[in-house]
Amino acid sequence: MQVRLISVTNPIIEIDNSQLTPEGLIAYCARVSSPNQETPDYEKLLSYCIQNKHWSVFEMVDMTVEITTSRAISPQILRHRSFCFQEFSQRYAKAQTTEKYQPRRQDTKNRQNSLDDLDEATVKWFDEAQDKVARFAFESYEEALEKGIAKECARVLLPLGTQTRLYMKGSVRSWIHYLEVRTDPATQKEHRDIAEAVQAIFTEQFPVTSAALGWKIN
């Protein structure tokens, strides 16, 4: 798993001979009906907007991240339909490797939960099983390609653990919602790890907004 920042909206207008920050642009747009639109301070305004759920102003700025994960997790990410996505295509490009996961025990009382208390023998078995499946799948995949079978057909031989890469672009409003949902303990750990990595990037890029949300600033 890997997450990295690709882009953030870059305002081109200036106030008091200083270029607006992304959060400054949010405030500038929020003051569209105010005679004091070019007021440079915005901490109290953004906090007020969050406290009073004036979310539309947070749609004025976007952030894009690159996420490397598995085909087991990417469908969960793609469910967030307020975002725009571009994902690595196994139809056009050759798959390279898999992502390995640490197994957990199924919680019998909550289908959305898993427990990290498996014995060492089971953990070892699962680790070896992942290697075995990946090795067989990729050997068969490579053989299919060598036989001239199209990538769009050969990819059905690949496991869900196959690595993928995608770009995820959304407004600050969308990111707030995504992070509130996907950093929750109810989210699958592998997806939660991604969300927590995104949140670390978000708090660095939007410190005032993050503080108003009560999120820890790195």
UniProtKB/TrEMBL annotation:
Enzyme Commission no: 2.1.1.148
EC supergroup of this enzyme: transferase
The keyword Repressor appears for this protein: no
Molecular-function annotations in GO: flavin adenine dinucleotide binding; NADPH binding; thymidylate synthase (FAD) activity; thymidylate synthase activity
Pfam families: Thy1
UniProt keywords, alphabetically: Methyltransferase, Transferase
NCBIfam families named among the record's database cross-references: thyX (TIGR02170)
Protein name: FAD-dependent thymidylate synthase
GO terms classed as biological process: dTMP biosynthetic process; methylation
Species: Chlorobaculum thiosulfatiphilum
SUPFAM superfamilies noted in UniProt: Thymidylate synthase-complementing protein Thy1 (SSF69796)
